C-alpha cells in the first residue's frame, strides 16, 4: 500500500498515500499508528503545543482489550494498571449509605473486568508507538478543507497549504473537522442535562485507591484517589443548556460555586481546592450522534463522531476501538476508501449505540440521580449487590 495513490474511490499506483489526522489524543495517536502500519504517510496537526495531558483514568475492557493486545500494549497496561477502587456513597454528615466493591482476585477475573490506567500513561504509550514515524504539526489547526480530484486541499490556521489523500477528524467533542465538513455542533450534540467539572489535585483527600460520592437531588460530588492524587468532580442538573464562555475558567468555577456552596459534606473544602487549582475542566454532558461519520474523503474517529459522554468513562476506549475498526476496514478494502468507510460505520455502530445507551440508562443514573427517591433506590440496589457477593 505504500506506493499507492487515491483517485476517486480507487487507488492508483504512484506516490505514497498520505493522511492528515487532526488531533493528538487517543483517537489521533491510535489512528496514526494503524494507518502507518498500513503503509500511509501520516501527519498529525494539533492545536496545542504538545499532546493534551491530564484527565481521569481510562477504562480498558471488553473489545478494547483485544485491540491493545494487537497493538502490543496489553502487557504495559497490565503492569501500570490501577487497582480496583471501591466506591462509598455518603450522606451529608459523612455517614456511609451504600458501597460498591470492585475486586479482581486473579488474572482471569481481572481480564474479564478489564483494566484502568492513568490517562497520561496510556497517552505516553501511544505517543511512543508513533513519535518516530509520524510528522507532527503542533500549535496549529485546520482552517479549511476542500476536496479535489486528487485528494483534500487543507489550509492550516498558520497559512500553510497542504494536500492529503484522506483527512481524519480526531479532534474531540468540539471538533473543527466536524464543523467544517458536516455542520454546526448543535446538529449532532444531544444534551444530557448535566454539567460537570473536574479538578485533579496532587495529594490524597481520601484513602488511596478508593472513591467517595455524595449526592443531593440533581447534584453530585465525587472523589477518586490513586497514585498520590485525587480527582474532584462536581456535576449538576440543568433542564436547559446554559450559555457560557468555554474559555472563561473563572466564569465556570463560579457556576460550580453557585450550585454547590453550602451543600454539606466536604463541599466547602473541595470548592476551595477547585478555586485554587489551575488543573480544571468544565463542560456539558452530551453525546455526539451522527447518521454518518464519513463524508467524501473525510472520516471522524472517537469523540468527534460518537462521544458517549464522560459519564460513560469510555471516551478513550471508544477512540482506540474506533481507530482499529477504521484500520480493519481499510485492510479489507485497500483499493476503495468509500467501501472502507461504509465497513467502518457498519462494524462499529452497534458498539457505539450500545455504549451510548448504557451511558444514559446505567452510568448517568448511578452517577447523578435526579431525585431523593432515585438516590435511595440506587443505594438499596448496591447494598443488595454487596450482600449477594459476600
Seen as an oligomer or otherwise, the chain set is single chain
Give the number of DSSP strands: 20
* Biggest sheet: strand arrangement: 7-6-15-16-17-14-18
How many strands, which pairing sense, and closed or not: the largest β-sheet?
7 strands, mixed
Average pLDDT works out at: 91
Gross morphology: globular
What Rg is obtained from the alpha carbons, in whole angstroms? 22 Å
Measured as a percent range, the helix fraction is 25-40%
Uncertain stretches: 1-15, 103-112
| Strand fraction | 25-35%
Determine the N-to-C terminus distance: 56 Å
Count of DSSP-assigned helices: 12
Structural class from helices and strands?
A: alpha/beta
Explain what you see.
- This protein is of the alpha/beta class and 390 residues long.
- Helix content is 37%, strand content 28%.
- The chain has helices spanning 26-37, 63-70, 74-80, 107-113, 119-130, 176-181, 249-260, 267-276, 303-306, 315-332, 337-367, 372-389; strands spanning 4-7, 10-13, 18-22, 41-46, 58-60, 87-90, 96-100, 115-117, 135-138, 142-147, 152-156, 161-164, 166-169, 189-201, 210-216, 219-226, 229-237, 280-288, 294-295, 298-300.
- The strands form five sheets. Strands 7-6-15-16-17-14-18 form a seven-stranded mixed beta sheet, sandwiched between helices. Strands 9-4-3-13-20-19 form a six-stranded mixed beta sheet.
- Strand 16 and strand 17 (229-237) form a beta hairpin.
- Helix 1 (26-37) packs parallel to helix 5 (119-130) and helix 7 packs antiparallel against helix 8.
- The longest helix is centred in the C-terminal third of the chain and has 31 residues, at 337-367.
- It is globular and about 65 Å long.
Amino acid at each position: 500500500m505504500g506506493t499507492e495513490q487515491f483517485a476517486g474511490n480507487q487507488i492508483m499506483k504512484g506516490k505514497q498515500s498520505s493522511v492528515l489526522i487532526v488531533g493528538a489524543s487517543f483517537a489521533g495517536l491510535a489512528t496514526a499508528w494503524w494507518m502507518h502500519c498500513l503503509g500511509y504517510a501520516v501527519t498529525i496537526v494539533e492545536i496545542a503545543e504538545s499532546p493534551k495531558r491530564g484527565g481521569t483514568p481510562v477504562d480498558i475492557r471488553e473489545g478494547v482489550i483485544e485491540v491493545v493486545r494487537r497493538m502490543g500494549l496489553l502487557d504495559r497496561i497490565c503492569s501500570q494498571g490501577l487497582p480496583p477502587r471501591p466506591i462509598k456513597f455518603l450522606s451529608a454528615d459523612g455517614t456511609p449509605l451504600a458501597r460498591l466493591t470492585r475486586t479482581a482476585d486473579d488474572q482471569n477475573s481481572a481480564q474479564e473486568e478489564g483494566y484502568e490506567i492513568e490517562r497520561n500513561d496510556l497517552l505516553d504509550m501511544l505517543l511512543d508507538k508513533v513519535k518516530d514515524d509520524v510528522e507532527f504539526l503542533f500549535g496549529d489547526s485546520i482552517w479549511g478543507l476542500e476536496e479535489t480530484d486528487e485528494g483534500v486541499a487543507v489550509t492550516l490556521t498558520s497559512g500553510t497549504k497542504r494536500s492529503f489523500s484522506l483527512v481524519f477528524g480526531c479532534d474531540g467533542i468540539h471538533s473543527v473537522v466536524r464543523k467544517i465538513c458536516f455542520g454546526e455542533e448543535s446538529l449532532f450534540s444531544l444534551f444530557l442535562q448535566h454539567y460537570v467539572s473536574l479538578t485533579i489535585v496532587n495529594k490524597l483527600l481520601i484513602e488511596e485507591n478508593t472513591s467517595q460520592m455524595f449526592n443531593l437531588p440533581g447534584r453530585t460530588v465525587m472523589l477518586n484517589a490513586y497514585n498520590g492524587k485525587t480527582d474532584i468532580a462536581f456535576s449538576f442538573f440543568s433542564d436547559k443548556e446554559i450559555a457560557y464562555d468555554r474559555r472563561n475558567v473563572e466564569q465556570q468555577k463560579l457556576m460550580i460555586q453557585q450550585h454547590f456552596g453550602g451543600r454539606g459534606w466536604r463541599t466547602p473544602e473541595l470548592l476551595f481546592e477547585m478555586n485554587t487549582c489551575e488543573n480544571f475542566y468544565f463542560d456539558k454532558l452530551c453525546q455526539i450522534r451522527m447518521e454518518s461519520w464519513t463524508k467524501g474523503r473525510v472520516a471522524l474517529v472517537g469523540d468527534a463522531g460518537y462521544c458517549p459522554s464522560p459519564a460513560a468513562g469510555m471516551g478513550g476506549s471508544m477512540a482506540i476501538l474506533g481507530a482499529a475498526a477504521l484500520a480493519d476496514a481499510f485492510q479489507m478494502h485497500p483499493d476503495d476508501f468509500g467501501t472502507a468507510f461504509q465497513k467502518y460505520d457498519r462494524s462499529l455502530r452497534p458498539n457505539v449505540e450500545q455504549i451510548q445507551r448504557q451511558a444514559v440508562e446505567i452510568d448517568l443514573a448511578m452517577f447523578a440521580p435526579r431525585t431523593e427517591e432515585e438516590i435511595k433506590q440506587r443505594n438499596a440496589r448496591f447494598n443488595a449487590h454487596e450482600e449477594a457477593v459476600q
